[in-house]
Amino acid sequence: MTVVRPSMVVCLGLLAVLSGCEKEVASPQLPRVEVLRVESRDFAAEVTLTGDIQARVQTDLSFRVGGKIISREVDVGDHVKARQVLARLDPKDLQNNVDSAKAAVFAEQARVSQTSAAFVRQQKLLPKGYTSRSEYDSAQAALRGSQSALKAAQAQLASAREQLSYTALVSEADGVITARQAEVGQVVQATMPIFTLARDGERDAVFNVYESLLGAPRSDRQVMVSLLDNPKVQAQGRVREITPTVSAESGTVQVKVALQDVPAAMQLGSPVTATANAEGHPSIELPWSALTKALHEPAVWIVGEGDKVELRKVQVSRYLTGKIVVSEGLQGGEEVVVSGGQLLHPGMHVEKVTGNSGGGAL
Fold this sequence. Notes:
Order of helices and strands: HEEEEEEEHHEEEEEEEEEEEEEEEEE
Number of strands: 24
Number of helices: 3
Radius of gyration: 44 Å
Shape: elongated
Structural class: alpha+beta
Largest sheet: 6 strands, mixed
Low-confidence stretches: 21-26, 358-362
């Protein structure tokens, strides 16, 4: 009979334990990742913009001559009529020019009278032979010269009077004064803006928009514009103008929306909002957790054949709250890792778990 000692039993038990450990090391557990099967659909971001109401036509009003402002008849916010006087310059210097031109006209008129009488005498004497042809021609030339000088003096007087009239700055049309650039007592140069006039008539809603939000918008796009402090006050409009250049200061382009049937509450300068959708583009939406990077470029982990992962570079067109919009790099039907991708490396086998992270189809 074979006797089994207790020490042998312990050794056999240890061998069995060690054998089990070797089996566990030989087949390690695969990392589990949450995946999302994505679909590509057109993405059209909804954009809400804030702008203000402006007149279709705005004009800078200025004096056509220089001088010192002695009076200002209107202020910002005043409604003015066409041909209404807005401000005046000191007319002394220009009045002196008018007086001088008048004196020149009187002098030329006297000269014309004198040369005319001399020519009439020559006309009477020439047929009787009491004067020569040369004296007759000289009298005629003197008359014509004095008449031309009179016309020049009269033109100078008319010009001086016109210059004097420019000392009164008048409105070119009915409208509202929206800005004032000069004060009484200030010496101004000709063409220096004094007032800005917003003409009565058509109104625009003007917005400053980042170029990336436009996406080649259609010029006939209809836009609903609402008053910021009272959204119930609305007006329908269409995009009528987009500036072709980007502002160097703000990096935006100016979009003007022509309004139709503008409510009375939408006065000049009133802040307004407009909501519109940009042009749609095929894109894929993913949760933030899916985004990683390949060196310095955005990327995501893709689970391919054999449940192996691949790092794929992507182009992100928009960052939303909790989500990203991928425009290039992915195709519909692919499985993207949305959770558990922190320790992955290319070619690693993973265990997939289908998740519900709120991404996928747009």
